[in-house]
């Protein structure tokens, strides 16, 4: 089923994944009525891409705060599909927990509430593998799927915030709308995303340039992850959007989460960065900068120092 005639709101539309979702929607769903792109601010490149689009789909840019309920009410009016990618991504503990909660948890709930008030029918949430793990023991997940039992006890604020937001999204499924419709939701747990204009890869590139074009090995070579190409995770969002409009398919996927990956070879984060850029002359350190056990103790020391200084220092 196509998205012909649908008015769609994409939050986080100025971001790495959000821009790719919008681009695919415009390329593949030419009879889409409208795309409202929402973000706190749009870069010059994103603005240019959206304003230069030539097609019958109306593209609007909305700049505002995901924590502003009135702004969200206005953004959702007349919309039937919301793809919610907006969030603060913080896997290093650099963002204050309160801000993470305000944007990732409260912002998501405010958006859900606005959707119900505005009779939005379908809601897709961009979740993350961080919701699952690794847990505090670092237990690996091998060949896992949605039915794999795994004790998820991550203490990282980012993972906690995404888990709470995802729970809110799935719990909202089935709510009755004022116009007699039913609110259908689904969450997509993405693996580590790579691809063109990836900000994470750019960060590692910048660091390697300071190390004579050599990537630091940030994890053991055997610590495999399951990366996913940005175009494929974007395509998954569009496929779910179409499935939610199909009553037969919707009854199977509504209220559930799904892991999204592809056939990218499994490898460590550092080796992925190397494979993507080795033809440009980049190399990679063969070993960790220090023995693994020493790294654990060093990380523990940094955690303790961070905890002690947090009331006095912002960093």
Automatic annotation (TrEMBL):
Cite the 3-beta hydroxysteroid dehydrogenase/isomerase domain residue spans from the record.
9-285
One GO MF term attached to the UniProt entry: oxidoreductase activity, acting on the CH-OH group of donors, NAD or NADP as acceptor
* Membrane topology summary: Single-pass membrane protein
Matches recorded under InterPro entries = 3Beta_OHSteriod_DH/Estase, Lipid_A_modif_metabolic_enz, NAD(P)-bd_dom_sf
The protein's UniProt keywords, in alphabetical order, are: Endoplasmic reticulum, Membrane, Mitochondrion, Oxidoreductase, Transmembrane, Transmembrane helix
* Sections of the chain in a coiled coil: none
Question: Where would you find this protein in the cell?
Answer: Endoplasmic reticulum membrane; Mitochondrion membrane
SUPFAM superfamilies from the xrefs? NAD(P)-binding Rossmann-fold domains
- Looking at the UniProt entry, the stretches that span the membrane are 294-313
- Which Gene3D superfamilies does the record associate with it? NAD(P)-binding Rossmann-like Domain
- Its primary localisation, in coarse terms, equals endoplasmic reticulum
| Pfam families for this protein | 3Beta_HSD
Q: Name one GO cellular component term.
A: mitochondrial membrane
Q: Which GO terms describe its biological process?
A: steroid biosynthetic process
Identify its protein family.
Belongs to the 3-beta-HSD family.
Question: What is the protein named?
Answer: 3-beta hydroxysteroid dehydrogenase/isomerase domain-containing protein
User: What is the organism field in this record?
Assistant: Chrysemys picta bellii
